[in-house]
Amino acid sequence: MRIRIVNAFTDRPFAGNPAGVVLLDGPSFPDQHWLQQVAAQVNLSETAFALPLPDSDEADWALRWLTPATEVDMCGHATLATAHVLHSTGTATGTVRFATRSGVLITTASADGSLTMDFPTAPLTAVPVPPGLADALGTEPVSTYETGSQVGDLLVEVADERTVRELSPDLTALTRFGSRGVIATARAEDPDGGYDFATRCFFPGVGIDEDPVTGSAHTALAPFWSERLGRDELTGLQGSARTGFVRTALRGDRTLLTGSAVTVIDGELTEAARAGA
Q: For the whole model, what pTM was predicted?
């Protein structure tokens, strides 16, 4: 059983967001405990497990995402990583449909090697700044928004890009906000710098102190910044230590997320590791 580590939302090794990808043979997913053990062993933000669906008219693969601690409802970078593996190995071409806990998600490969994912747009609901958030985040929020159950984050606008980059939050305190965590964002300082907004994402409640590049968060960031900047197509920089770029295109209740990916490790699970599958 092959396991690959793929860097998503980047075109070079050692950048972007790494995800584990395991293509299963079927006919069904292994035991939940085994999936969680593999994800914990890989110890990345998410590990994706993809199962072929040869008899389905609605989707080509079933896809699940697990952090080292739990299974999640939506993950952008691990979906991109899985589509990259399918295309780079010749397992799939063109459009791939994934059946997930967030419905059927469609990915499409472009001639330049980039991949576009069709995700549901997150609903935004303005809410008062929660008590204690400023202290936990380390800065006074400009505005705060809930992002709906599928994303489950608290989106926090802060003063400027420098503030985003210099955040050093109290991660234990941040577990009180959002069912998954906190998205901190601000407009790009340089409008000619190649991106429109900057973001960092903190999810200590699901075992991820800071996620390097978060595709799912951009389903909320796309409508947020499109409204403010007056454009439906934008580019976001996620300013983690690894950095990465996500191109967004708002299409009403759907958001298109585009990025590149590169495989950095390609290996095998040992016989002992596969025994519980």
A: 0.91
Residue range 125-257, CATH number: 3.10.310.10
pLDDT digits (tens, 9 = 90+) for 244-258: 999 999 999 999 999
Q: What is the pLDDT of residues 71-110, one digit of tens each?
A: 998 899 999 999 999 999 999 999 999 999 999 999 999 9
Q: Is 271 one of the catalytic residues?
A: no
Catalytic residue among 46, 146, 161, 210: 46
Q: Which residues of 234-272 are buried (b: 16+ CB within 10 A; e: fewer)?
A: bbbbbbbebbbbbbbbbeeeebbbbbbbbbeeeeeeeee
How do strand 125-127 and strand 115-120 relate by DSSP bridges? unpaired
**Do 96 and 115 touch, CB atoms closer than 8 A?**
no
The residues facing 268 across adjacent strands are: 2
Domain with CATH 3.10.310.10 in the chain: 2-114+260-274, 125-257
Cα–Cα dist 200/236, whole Å: 10
Sign of the torsion angle spanned by Cα atoms 261, 217, 251, 48: positive
Fold of 2-114+260-274: Diaminopimelate Epimerase; Chain A, domain 1 (3.10.310)
Report strand pairing: 115-120 vs 254-259: antiparallel
> What single-letter DSSP state applies at residue 197?
E
DSSP-based three-state secondary structure for 195? coil
